[in-house]
Write a structure and sequence with these properties.
The complex is a heterodimer. Chain A is mostly helical. Chain A has three helices and two strands, in the order ααββα. In chain A, strand 1 and strand 2 form a beta hairpin. Chain A is elongated, with a radius of gyration of 18 Å. Chain B is mainly alpha-helical. Chain B has a domain of 378 residues: Up-down Bundle (Sodium/glucose cotransporter). Chain B is built from 22 helices and two strands. The longest helix of chain B is centred in the first third of the chain and has 51 residues. The radius of gyration of chain B is 25 Å and the shape is globular. The termini of chain B are far apart. The chains are: A mainly alpha, B mainly alpha. Chains A and B meet through helix 1, strand 2 and helix 3 of A and helix 5, helix 11 and helix 13 of B.
């Protein structure tokens, strides 16, 4: 492996780690944050007939997970192309 | 036409469909047998993954659990979906790039060690058998209730069907059958939910209905539900009874365990490209979320309907309780199964259903109302199956639910059997014992292993060892504490070596198993009462896999840092799996 492609590879991996960390922060906040640790605080807020904390625990976190995976997949495809490591 | 004939026809048609697909998609090579030739479209793969993942427990038990646990049931909802985010971002694309057939193969290759592979094989077989026994039990229950045959006959028919498509079709047959099974099970799950949501709130979308106003004008569904359960001495529905720390760690163990379950991971080896592995996790979760966002609505509505059926008027007013004589037909139909039992403790000819475990309420009820204890026992496993009957839905819906329950159990069982057979024929025989085996013989060995596994699973389903219910915690705990960390470190660290990984897996495994056995007493008597005061930091055996995982990480890093770094070719391998390009060439070895 030449030095140049090595550098590119490292930059790609760093960008990937950054995106991944962002996604996992959101993943943590909606489930463990809103659905568990802050559930009592959020339950004071009403949201379309639900207590907000309860809604995050039984509905909202799941919707967020779905969006998160597609967002990650899309951004990764862009990164793959940008760093020229995509599949043919 | 009566209900039983209708059920026979609908279940029979679904079986014919599965077998037809199996014959059409027969596997001819080991590649097709293990990973469907790696040519499955990501959406189809997502659907198959969803069916594979959603077991009899998801279909039959989960909504019932939520109905009785209320907010506490959220651990299953978040835990069994959040793992897919971990799969998509941390594992699936890299494992697909590695391009082999099985999880032990990755662990053996990355940690350049047959011992590491062997530890992984043992974990995998234990996890998968635990799981599959539960599925066969589910098949037995559905058969005995709806087709009124005995459990043994039900099991033999179920085993026969799985045998045909798992053994003939391998992963290819299983994948396409699972697509059909997903359609059957999701239709069967949502149709009754929509009907009941309409009846209660006038809104057909269950996800929205359980936050809507009730049609009878008594207020918001969840507020009303909180009210009626608290009137009977139960905990507020939207609050739950588990401590925050326990909810946190159970959710974590279930999420990480999901991402570490071999039969789920292997699904991402079947797609053509790395980028398909990412999006396929998303599609899988879309299809899973359809059921998982409906389940809490089904749970809340079922709980509400159940209480309303028995408590027909004011609490405390004798006329407020249902007379035994006028109890609905569905109760009578479930009584012979012993899953629903009634006992008139105060001999007043009426049914009292309340929380007699709540000392203040029980005392008050005895003194003021003359109640002598809770008189109705409802097994939570019947809530989904009985739901259409409780709501008085037409017979075809009830028959459909039976077919859906069987589809959920069979699809998961088949996926697990394939993982077991691959572990035996590919990892154990070809990888360790007889490396020179020909492809033909390996395929034959795989089929024999699958057939053998079906027989053992059927036996476990018929004679469930007393501990089947307890060992579910095992499956997730072991996956979370052994396989998941080993795979994760294999991808994200170049420094973790053979010694570290093996020590980490063993520490995680022994700690988690020890803790669960200590409190739940699998094989032996429990050594301490399974209650919060005795638990480590208040974490129940269900959540202990999270701690096991942390110990695994800590041990692996520590041992790796004081032993030799992995060889250069392994470090290059890690570099290689981190980039998508070049995934096309899938090799068996």
């Amino acid at each position: 492996m030449s030095d140049q492609s090595n550098e590119m590879g490292e930059a790609y991996w760093k960008a990937n780690l950054k995106l991944m960390t962002m996604c996992l922060i959101v993943w943590f906040v909606v489930s463990y944050g809103f659905g568990i640790l802050l559930v009592d605080v959020l339950n004071a807020i009403e949201f379309g007939g639900f207590k907000l904390g309860f809604w995050f625990a039984q509905q909202g976190s799941i919707y967020t997970f779905v969006i998160l995976i597609f967002f990650y997949a899309r951004q990764m495809n862009k990164l793959d192309r940008k760093f020229n490591v995509h599949e043919e | 036409m009566d209900l039983q004939t209708m059920t026979y026809i609908i279940v029979g048609l679904s079986f014919a469909l599965y077998i037809g697909i199996a014959i059409w998609s027969r596997a001819s090579s080991t590649g097709e047998f293990y990973v469907a030739g790696k040519g499955v479209h990501p959406i189809a793969n997502g659907m198959a993954t969803a069916a594979d993942w959603m077991s009899a427990a998801s279909f039959i038990s989960m909504a019932g659990l939520i109905a009785f646990l209320g907010y506490g049931g959220s651990v299953y909802l978040m835990g069994w979906t959040g793992g897919y985010v971990l799969l998509a971002t941390l594992l699936a694309p890299y494992l697909r790039k590695y391009g082999k057939f099985t999880v032990p193969e990755f662990i053996g290759g990355r940690y350049y060690s047959k011992s590491a592979s062997l530890v992984a094989i043992i974990c995998l077989i234990f996890i998968s058998f635990t799981y599959v026994a539960g599925q066969m039990r589910g098949v037995g229950i559905v058969f005995s209730r709806f087709l009124e045959v005995d459990i043994l006959t039900g099991l033999i028919v179920g085993m026969g069907v799985v045998f045909i498509y798992a053994v003939l079709g391998g992963m290819k047959g299983i994948t396409y059958t699972q697509v059909a099974q997903y359609c059957v099970l999701i239709f069967a799950y949502t149709v009754p939910a929509v009907f009941i949501a309409m009846q209660l709130t006038g809104n057909p979308l269950p996800q929205i209905a359980f936050g809507s106003q009730l049609s009878d004008g008594s207020g918001l569904m969840l507020e009303r539900l909180n009210q009626v359960v608290m009137d009977l001495g139960f905990t507020e529905y939207t609050k739950g009874t588990k401590s925050t720390i326990d909810v946190f760690f159970i959710t974590l163990a279930l999420m990480v365990g999901t991402a570490g379950l071999p039969h789920v991971i292997v699904r991402f080896f079947t797609v053509p490209k790395v980028r398909d592995a990412r999006s396929s996790a998303g599609w899988a979760l879309v299809f899973i979320a359809l059921l998982y966002t409906t389940a809490p609505a089904v749970g809340a509505m079922a709980r509400y309907n159940l209480v309303q059926t028995v408590q027909i008027g004011q609490v405390g007013d004798p006329a407020g309780n249902l007379e035994v004589e006028s109890r609905p037909d569905w109760m009578k139909r479930w009584e012979p199964t012993k899953l629903l039992q009634f006992e008139d403790k105060n001999n007043d000819g009426r049914i009292q259903f309340y929380n007699d475990k709540n000392p203040t309420f029980a005392k008050m009820a005895e003194e003021e109302y003359g109640w002598k204890g809770n008189e109705l026992k409802v097994d939570r496993d019947i809530m989904v199956l009985a739901n259409p009957e409780i709501a008085g839905l037409p017979d075809w819906v009830i028959a459909l639910v039976a077919a859906g329950g069987i589809a959920a159990a069979l699809s998961t069982a088949a996926g697990l059997l394939l993982v077991i057979s691959a572990a035996i024929s590919h990892d154990l025989l070809k990888g360790i014992l007889t490396p020179n085996i020909s492809e033909r013989s390996e395929l034959m060995a795989g089929r024999i292993a699958a057939a053998g596994a079906i027989c053992i699973a059927g036996y476990l389903g018929y004679n469930p060892p007393g501990f089947v219910a307890q060992v579910v915690a095992f499956a997730f705990g072991l996956a979370a504490s052994s396989l998941f960390p080993a795979i994760l470190m294999g991808i994200f660290s170049k420094r973790v070596n053979r010694e570290g990984a093996i020590a980490g897996m063993l520490v995680g495994l022994v700690f988690t198993m020890g803790y669960i056995i200590y409190f739940k007493g699998v094989f032996i008597e429990p050594m301490a009462a399974n209650k919060p005061e005795n638990w480590f930091m208040g974490i129940s055996p269900e959540g202990i896999g999270s701690i096991g995982m942390m110990l695994n990480f800590a041990t692996a890093f520590l041992i790796s840092s004081i032993t030799k770094a992995p060889p250069v070719e392994v470090q290059e391998l890690v570099d290689d799996i981190r980039v998508p390009r070049g995934s096309g060439a899938a090799q068996s070895h």
